[in-house]
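In practice, a research group might receive sequence data for several interacting partners and want a quick structural hypothesis before committing to experiments. The following worked case mirrors that situation: the sequences arrive first, and a predicted assembly follows.
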Amino acid sequence: MRWLVTGGLGFIGSNFVRLVLRERPGVEVVNLDAMTYAGNPANLAGVEEDGRYRFVKGDICDPAAVKEAIGNGVDAIVNFAAETHVDRSILDPEAFLRTDILGTHVLLEAVRERGIARFLQVSTDEVYGHVAEGDSSETDALHPRSPYSASKAGGDLQALAYHTTFATPVLVTRGSNTYGPYQYPEKLIPLFVTNLIDDREVPVYGDGLQIRDWIYVDDHARGILHTLERGEPGNVYNVGGGNPRTNMEITRLLVEDCGRSMETHVKHVADRPGHDRRYSVNCAKLRGLGWQPLTPFEEGIVATIAWYRANEAWWRPLKSGEFLEYYKRQYAHR
Ligand code: DAU
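A structural hypothesis for the assembly, expressed as tokens:
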């Protein structure tokens, strides 16, 4: 079997590639990645030596690059390639529309033309929008509210439309907030941990009482693998951690673990425009196929903080250059 993974140099993508090479000895992996700011070769350091791994640099929006990556054929495509940061989508939405919608379309066309047996679209729980109470099921209407989540909903719905219209064998996963090793340090947990290690303040948006459902990256990657192998084409599967926390709870945990204090190191700043207050997904459907998250949050978060402490050589270069420009644009005026 040969699988094409797109965006395999990103956070969840690279964790997925490692998982597959480790646990599926019969699978070869082709990784198509555009190497944007978040696609980091260091995320797969050492993997190049594996004879079952091939890297192709290219953009999913470019049909020629997709063709090259597919080569003589693949048995499945798993699409991780995406612009993923809500705050960046507020500053500059266009890249999101391009990659998350148009890029998904280019891949779907390739699946159709080449008769590829499975296409898995990695989507997000943000497509459901703010959930005041209860939790979102796969059949719920989508109410995306940021340029990011609207772009992801576009890709997600295109995939499902291809199944309806052309019987393309698509699967969609809608994952919740993911944390763990190799996450680019612009997202809440790695940004806060690395700021705290550096004895800097952490910027909490608004009152910090927004709720997210946190899942460890290995559990998310396993949920995607499980869906790819056991899901029913044309179906959506929620992949959540079942671990809701307010941002303030997360912040307190990180501040304390890093030996800093809430009084000196937490700065409440202007809220994110259109900030969704709460997400919550019902994962009974994927659990019914035998998947469940294995890492308790208390364990995963301690391991994650320890990983960032032990891997300064990985994140320090990322918090320079382009990142500093972004940080200024994002936080200086708040
Ligand atoms: O729910 C799944 C989604 O989770 C994924 O689809 C996205 O790709 C991923 O980025 C994440 O989206 P969020 O917007 O929830 O993640 P982020 O880490 O940016 O923010 C988490 C929460 O923390 C959110 O309520 C905003 C808040 N926050 C974030 C940052 C970066 C702050 O208070 N301060 C910050 O500096």
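Before designing any experiment, note the following. Residues 2-178+214-239 form a domain with the Rossmann fold fold (CATH 3.40.50.720). Residues 68 and 319 are 33 Å apart (CA to CA).
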